[in-house]
Design a protein that fits this description.
The protein has helices at residues 5-8, 12-19, 23-35, 42-50, 52-58, 112-115, 124-135, 154-164, 179-182, 189-196, 226-236, 256-268, 292-302, 349-356; strands at 86-87, 93-96, 142-145, 172-176, 211-216, 242-248, 272-278, 312-315, 322-324, 331-335, 338-348, 364-366, 371-377. It is α/β, with parallel strands linked by helices. It is globular, with a radius of gyration of 20 Å.
């Protein structure tokens, strides 16, 4: 099957020339593109005309060349299992990546080392092998089907879903996607109906219920245009829960007014604000990263608002997610002019080694009581 991306992706020349008249910038942007490729969809092109906040998320910036970030800031994405496309970092859930590419590249994508590098999609044989392994992991009850964009190859996605739904231990299936923003037109009645068929509530024996939810990704109120909301509504009206994962982005949504408007709009349109993620220290994204403290200042304000619109605020050192609460105090360490946050995670080192089948990531160590302690590259709040 031809993947959907070929029909939708545009060429950078069509758009950089449109939004930048500075020849020097255009020259640098061409260099950036060679390091961090650029892709966006026809639908996004329309949104670019109206919204700087959306342009900044998908169009390259000369600032991408100045970076302290790393290619793989989170452990996810490395070879963590003997089966290609299957990864396990946590006790109760695994990640499966049937399709590694995306139809549009977010400039801050923490998986850019694989999403932008044409990594091959999983084959049907690899999907069979992954499902076979997951079936033997008795403590695993959830699968996150992630990407890249799993919706780009729907034959593989539904093949995988059909296999997963048969596993006794798997009760929670989530699909992570940004296609509701990048390609809302793919959400036909037929697709939404098929997805909802995996949501199987068993009222006579709730232990046997299995559900499918979708993790969506909206960062700014400008993204919630009628076509997008219509596609979301086709899913929620069929009983599929949509949970939003926002990335905090400097100059895009790092102010109380924008972010609280985003969360209120999401709630109003039946989408749960689920996570507000601090932008990861991936290479090429420094100019979009605030300090973690800035996110905390915003989060404290959110905590004074209606609790329905408060997501979890997290940042993610390579060893695992860390939740930030209103009373969190950060410990800072500076090394070679880079400021790190030193943090003890909730994860035991022994368990990490056992389930992820690898050693701790760089700049991580074990505390006296056996937990993983790591260093996380902080962002800054300077004007770029
Ligand atoms: S949609 Fe997600 S995986 Fe794809 S480029 Fe954006 S952040 Fe990365």
């Amino acid at each position: 099957m031809e993947t959907l991306e070929k029909k939708t992706t545009k060429n950078i020349d069509q758009i950089t020339n449109h939004f930048s008249e500075n020849e020097e910038d255009i020259k640098i942007i061409k260099q950036v593109e060679k390091i961090y490729p650029v892709k966006y969809t026809s639908f996004l092109t329309k949104l670019f005309l109206e919204s700087e906040a959306i342009r900044k998320q998908f169009l390259p910036s000369p600032l991408e060349l100045k970076t302290n970030g790393t290619p793989t800031p989170f452990e996810e994405g490395k070879k963590a299992s003997k089966t290609y496309g299957l990864e396990r970092l946590y006790r109760d859930r695994v990640l499966i990546t049937p399709h590694f590419d995306c139809p549009a590249y977010c400039r801050f994508c923490y998986k850019k080392s694989r999403v932008m590098r044409n990594k091959t999609a999983m084959s049907f044989e690899e999907i069979n092998a992954a499902v076979g392994e997951v079936g033997k992991m008795s403590k695993v009850r959830g699968v996150l089907i992630t990407g890249g964009e799993p919706l780009l190859d729907q034959d593989k996605l539904f093949y995988l879903l059909d296999k997963l739904i048969e596993l006794e231990n798997i009760k929670e299936i989530r699909i992570g996607t940004r296609t509701l923003l990048t390609m809302p037109e793919i959400y036909t009645e037929n697709l939404c109906f098929k997805l909802s068929s995996y949501n199987q509530i068993n009222s006579s024996d709730p232990e046997k219920s299995t559900y499918l939810a979708i993790n969506v990704h909206f960062n700014h109120p400008d993204e919630l245009v009628p076509e997008v909301i219509e596609a979301c509504n086709k899913l929620t009206s069929r009983g599929i829960t949509l949970r939003n994962q926002t990335v905090l982005l400097k100059g895009i949504n790092d102010d109380v007014e924008t972010i609280s408007r985003l969360f209120q709009l999401l709630i109003r349109n039946n989408i749960i604000p689920y996570y507000m993620n601090h932008c990861m220290p991936v290479e090429g994204s420094d100019h979009l990263r605030t300090s973690v403290q800035k996110g905390l200042d915003i989060y404290k304000f959110l905590c004074t608002e209606s609790s329905t619109a408060i997501p979890h605020y997290v940042y993610a050192p390579s060893g695992g997610k860390v939740h930030v609460g209103p009373d969190t105090k950060f410990e800072y360490v500076t090394d070679e002019h880079i400021r790190y946050i030193k943090v003890k995670t909730l994860y035991k080192a022994d368990e990490f080694r056992k389930i992820a089948k690898k050693e701790l990531p760089p700049r991580h160590e074990v505390t006296e009581d056996g937990y993983i302690q790591g260093l996380y590259i902080d962002g800054n709040d300077n004007n770029n």
